[in-house]
């Protein structure tokens, strides 16, 4: 361990002094050793404790060596912070007033390919835990196998999807066997860092929010046993949101509850499964994450502080999710269901900003914690801010076309998905030939996720999973033509059953009434090998409207000194950016994120190479570095892929299949129809609200089958809504079907305020058997949760109509 190395340097230094050397010289030697190794001095000027401690779950409190202990925790993801900044971010967490950090492991980072484990560099989670201990922080470990966290596939490895019929997060032998192997490796790396072995790890989580996905307590038992077999002997726990605490519940996994508001109500529900024992919130949300094309989220700081103080007064433990969000670099951002891809920035409106800065929320949280410290406990000052730089707009130095000098293609009768091509991320070019003939429609079963169509090299249109736009109109041809569809994977869904999210063009692909056969597939993985093989020519000087060319723009930027910066991608279209070989992540001009965080640790004095892939063919655009990020600028008019810029007011035609009254409060309501109905569309209509106001809100809406189980939402989209609020807050209608209960759809309230009735219409993607639905009201206290539906009507049918505009 690093602490042992420091100690050995200290001993060596002291031994080198003359016997008559004064004691203060020895302490100077220790200080020199600490500075030489780059280690921060632990609190109380003492080396990190290596003594074993005992951490227990008592009848009404957590116990550290027999004494009551409140866990003041915050989530910090090592994978979302450059390794060079781990120590600074942990110092910031300590200065916030935390005594513990919550640390996720992402299985797909630790085992990016089957049986190939990575525990070094950015994936060295053991070093992250050791640094936390050195900074006076305990650790709550969350190793998965599933994480969610708006991370690609929720942290599950993509290669599991090579099995067509695999059932993830179940006792499917292919899944549970891989998970056991993974946990064995996790134990080899981290079991020795448990508090029982002198390390900082207090507790370990089994799975994550499994109640949203299933109810199998035996599966949770398998995960628990895999952790024990991996060598974990500290308390094991499971977390779930308020409405799913009983799903998969086991008395041998300590339960904690996740929520973003109303701790009194949430802990009351927790007491139904935990009559005695300490109360803990596993995830307490100060803000929320962003998705492309939706407004930037800002949390309610006043409510956050009130709820936090409520827990402090109760001596309840908690973890702020996120204390520091950081950045989803590379291809790690996931997608909300049914399909809302997440931005690269994971700022989360957390107390510590994406770049590691203090915020108003930071200081208010710190002031609150200072009033609830244990006797003798203090909060250190924040570390010095890291330097920030800017650089002027720089012209491109070169350009490499994306579709030039392509690698060899794979051939198949039908298009193959990314997983069958052994490709995790990036792009695949699908190619076939269509015969001469009249104009007709080209239609694919699905395009996961975004596609650009070309005919004989000319761009002819876009395909978009968000709106299920899977068709193109092709003009008449006098001779055969080469059809190409460039498909981009935008991040696998990270939540619910929809994590079974295979990427690529899904057949059958029909042209008119004929299925197209004989496909070629060219892999463009955008990995290090791919980028290393690029041949850059002169920079593009002007647009080429007759042959729009996606490709890589290279910029050579001179920097005098290192410092964090934010590159402005707003002049570009859509793609990926790199600096000095580091993948910064995806960008998209539709916003809300318009800049990308560039860690100063990844820059160097002198020349730095930036590469920007633009799929929308923006030629000759300059690149600038800014001192502040732009995370809140929406530009929906630039969305080239979206066929519809705003949701229509379409509703289901016919008579209601159900009428009723929802009870007051935030409890989830399950409604069963008198008999099953065959329908493609489902609509919930609000006729009144419990607060008597003219608004309607829905936290989550699921449609169930004849067996009362929720239907898979992978094909779903919102087909119509009477109104939605996308200006005053991020409360669009898609929030109602993303499975997240901490956000919500809200009828329009800024500007126009239409009254009841309000409705939301779901397109299930195909005709299904509907047995009922599940409605979750907006969460929070009664005074916070406007628009909870009282009187309602539900419709199911196969036809939509457009009502007259008010």
Describe the structure.
With 806 residues, this protein is of the alpha+beta class. Helix content is 16%, strand content 29%. Helix 1 packs antiparallel against helix 2, helix 6 runs parallel beside helix 7 and helix 9 runs parallel beside helix 10. The protein is globular. It starts with a helix and ends in a 5-residue tail after the last strand.
In short:
The protein has 806 residues and is α+β, with helices and mostly antiparallel strands.
List keywords for this structure.
single chain; 806 residues; alpha+beta; eight-stranded parallel beta barrel; 42 strands
C-alpha end-to-end distance: 69 Å
What's the arrangement of strands in the largest beta sheet? 4-5-6-7-8-9-10-11
| Tally of individual helices | 11
Radius of gyration from the alpha-carbon trace, in angstroms: 27 Å
Global shape: globular
Tell me the helix content: 10-25%
Secondary-structure content class: alpha+beta
Mean pLDDT: 91
Strand content: 25-35%
Largest sheet: 8 strands, parallel, barrel
Number of strands: 42
Low-confidence stretches: 1-49
């Amino acid at each position: 361990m690093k602490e042992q190395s420091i100690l050995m340097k200290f001993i060596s230094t002291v031994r080198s002094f003359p016997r008559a050397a004064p004691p203060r010289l020895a302490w100077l030697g220790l200080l020199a050793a600490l500075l030489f190794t780059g280690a921060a001095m632990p609190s109380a000027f003492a080396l990190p404790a290596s003594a074993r401690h005992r951490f227990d779950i008592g009848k009404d409190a957590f116990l550290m060596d027999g004494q009551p202990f409140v866990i003041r925790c915050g989530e910090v993801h090592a994978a979302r912070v450059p390794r060079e900044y781990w120590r600074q971010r942990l110092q910031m967490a300590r200065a916030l007033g935390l005594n513990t950090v919550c640390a996720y492991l992402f299985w797909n980072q630790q085992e990016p390919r089957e049986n190939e484990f990575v525990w070094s560099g950015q994936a060295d989670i053991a070093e992250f835990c050791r640094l936390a201990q050195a900074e006076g922080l305990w650790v709550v470990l969350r190793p998965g196998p599933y994480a969610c966290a708006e991370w690609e596939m929720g942290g599950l490895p993509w290669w599991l999807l090579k099995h067509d019929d695999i059932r993830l997060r179940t006792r499917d032998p292919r899944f549970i066997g891989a998970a056991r192997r993974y946990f064995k490796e996790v134990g080899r790396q981290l079991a020795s860092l448990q508090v029982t072995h002198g390390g900082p790890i207090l507790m370990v989580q089994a799975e994550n929010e499994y109640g949203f996905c299933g109810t199998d307590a035996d599966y949770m038992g398998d995960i628990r046993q895999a952790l024990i077999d991996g060598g974990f002997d500290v308390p094991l726990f499971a977390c779930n949101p308020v409405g799913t605490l009983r799903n998969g519940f086991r008395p041998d996994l300590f339960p904690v509850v996740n929520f973003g508001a109303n701790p009194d109500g949430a802990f009351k529900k927790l007491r139904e499964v935990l009559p005695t024992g300490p109360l803990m919130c596993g995830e307490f949300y100060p803000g929320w994450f962003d998705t492309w094309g939706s407004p930037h989220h800002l949390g309610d700081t006043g409510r956050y502080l009130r709820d936090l103080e409520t827990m402090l007064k109760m001596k309840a433990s908690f973890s702020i999710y996120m204390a520091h969000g950081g950045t989803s670099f590379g291809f790690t951002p996931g997608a909300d269901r049914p399909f809302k891809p997440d931005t690269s920035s994971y700022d989360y409106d957390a107390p510590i900003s994406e770049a590691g800065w203090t915020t108003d929320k930071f200081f208010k949280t710190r002031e609150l914690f200072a009033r609830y410290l244990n006797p003798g406990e203090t909060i250190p000052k924040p570390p010095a801010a890291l330097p920030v730089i800017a650089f002027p707009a720089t012209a491109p130095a070169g350009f490499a076309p994306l579709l030039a000098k392509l690698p060899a293609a794979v051939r198949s009768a039908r298009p193959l998905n990314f997983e069958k091509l052994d490709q995790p991320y990036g792009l695949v070019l699908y190619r076939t030939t269509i015969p001469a003939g009249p104009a007709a429609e080209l239609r694919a079963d699905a395009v996961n996720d975004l596609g650009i169509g070309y005919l004989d090299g000319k761009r002819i249109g876009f395909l978009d999973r968000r709106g299920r736009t899977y068709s193109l109109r092709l003009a008449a041809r006098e001779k055969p033509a080469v059809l190409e569809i460039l498909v981009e994977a935008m991040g696998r869904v990270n939540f619910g059953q929809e994590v079974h999210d295979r990427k690529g063009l899904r057949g059958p692909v029909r042209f008119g009434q004929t299925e197209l056969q004989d496909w070629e597939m060219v892999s463009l993985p955008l990995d290090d090998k791919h980028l290393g093989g690029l041949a850059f020519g002169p920079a593009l000087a002007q647009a080429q409207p007759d042959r729009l060319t996606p490709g890589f723009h290279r910029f050579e930027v001179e920097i005098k000194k290192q410092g964090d910066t934010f590159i402005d991608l707003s002049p570009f279209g859509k793609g990926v950016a790199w600096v000095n070989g580091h993948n910064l992540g995806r960008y998209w001009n539709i916003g809300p994120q318009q800049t990308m965080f560039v860690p100063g640790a990844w820059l160097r004095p002198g020349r730095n190479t930036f590469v920007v892939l633009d799929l929308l063919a923006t030629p000759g655009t300059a690149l600038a570095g800014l001192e502040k990020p732009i995370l809140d600028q929406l530009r929906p008019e630039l969305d080239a892929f979206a066929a519809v810029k705003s949701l229509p007011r379409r509703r289901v035609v016919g008579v209601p299949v159900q009428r009723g009254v929802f009870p007051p409060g935030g409890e989830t309501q399950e409604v069963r129809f008198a008999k099953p109905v065959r329908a493609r569309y489902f609509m919930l209509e609000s006729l009144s609200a419990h607060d008597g106001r003219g608004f309607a809100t829905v936290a989550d809406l699921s449609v169930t089958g004849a067996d009362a189980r929720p239907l898979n939402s992978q094909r779903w989209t919102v087909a119509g809504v009477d109104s939605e609020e996308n200006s005053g807050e991020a409360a669009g209608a898609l929030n109602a079907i993303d499975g997240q209960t901490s956000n919500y759809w809200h009828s329009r309230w800024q500007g126009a305020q239409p009254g009841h009735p309000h409705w939301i219409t779901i397109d299930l993607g195909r005709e299904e058997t509907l047995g009922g639905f599940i409605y979750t009201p907006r969460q929070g206290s009664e005074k916070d949760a406007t628009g909870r539906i009282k009187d309602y009507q539900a419709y199911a049918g196969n036809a939509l109509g457009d009502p007259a505009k008010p």
